[in-house]
Amino acid sequence: MWELVQANKRKSVGLIIVMGVTLILLGFIFGSAYHPESGGMVGIFIAFILWAILFLVTYSSGSKILLAVSGAKEVTKDVHPQLYNVVEEMKIASGHPHMPKVYIIDTPAPNAFATGLKPNNTAVAVTAGLLTKLNRDELQGVIAHEMAHIVNRDVLFMTVSGIMLGVIVLLSQVFVRSMFFGGIGGRHSRSKDAGQAQIVFLVIAIVFAILAPIAAQLLYFAISRTREYLADASAVRFTRYPEGLASALHKISRSSDEIKSANKVTAPMYIANPLKKKGRKLSDLTSTHPPISERIKILRSIGRSADFTSYQNAFNQVSGKETKIIPQSGLKDATPIDIRGASGLPFVGETKKQVQRNVGDLVMQLNDYSFINCPCGVKLKVPPAYKNKKVFCPRCKRQHSS
Q1: Catalytic residue status for 146
Q2: Are residues 70 and 106 in the same domain?
Q3: Is 345 in the same domain as 373?
Q4: 247 close to 239: Cβ distance less than 8 angstroms
């Protein structure tokens, strides 16, 4: 799969160039709309500076920004050994030399994503809802999918494109909104010709402000959908249990919860569309992901082997297309990989109530809650903003120090 990694690196460089040209073009058009005589060059200069800053910020802190925007909290092996062990297992199965950092997002919506610009500095983030709803086999399937994005270097492309696209959308929104506050319409040039030119540039700027982000997003979404299929195929190879990922996707698709911290830029990074509510259908053109029902059918149509050829054949059968999802190097190795049976292991507890309680306590711990175990058996959970030095047990009324 080496050519896929190289292709992702080339596409990342190409995307940076394309996004940079788009930003500069936006700067010229928007600047000309403000002042047709000299505004274009000023706009280019500002856009170039913005692109340079964006480039440096993306490569130095891109992953940190996306994790912070998502509200992700880092966990260690001591805090959550089961989750850490699953990530470690899939890291070994994938052959990746570096252990990703592990994060949890406090939301009931089941989902996950991976990010990272360098192989030795990557991260996997899962939601609290994912931990409460999945068993160990299903969680392995999801983590394996995210490890595939890391191994295939999809995360490099997705992180760069997410940051770049976000700035283009932001710049366009700033321009459009400035019109409503008289930022452009109130500026008039002294000459008649310059005034006409300003009107022309203004019309072009409005059209470009609307179409540029849409075109960039459509390209971004199309590329994201293709990568999801390949990550599913790789996950099957890592776990040797396609039903684990298929069952996880089924549970994720049944959730009606949205991830409030997700947006149109970060949505393609998740294993399933975090913005899609139950009962809402997005068109194939604007969806960030392939139809989840189709992904499940493909996984459940795989025969007795977990190799890439089996996934490609299942994809062709279910989709009715001959689109090549797997690179040629992956199809050359047709060595059968036996599919294993289900482990039947639960996750984070023996009962559903225990699972929800354990995950809830973990999220509170990550958000700096303190815990007090009362002799009567009640566990008191004190929020970080609690200022009173005295805490009373609601059952036995015993006093504790916060």
Answers
A1: yes
A2: yes
A3: no
A4: no
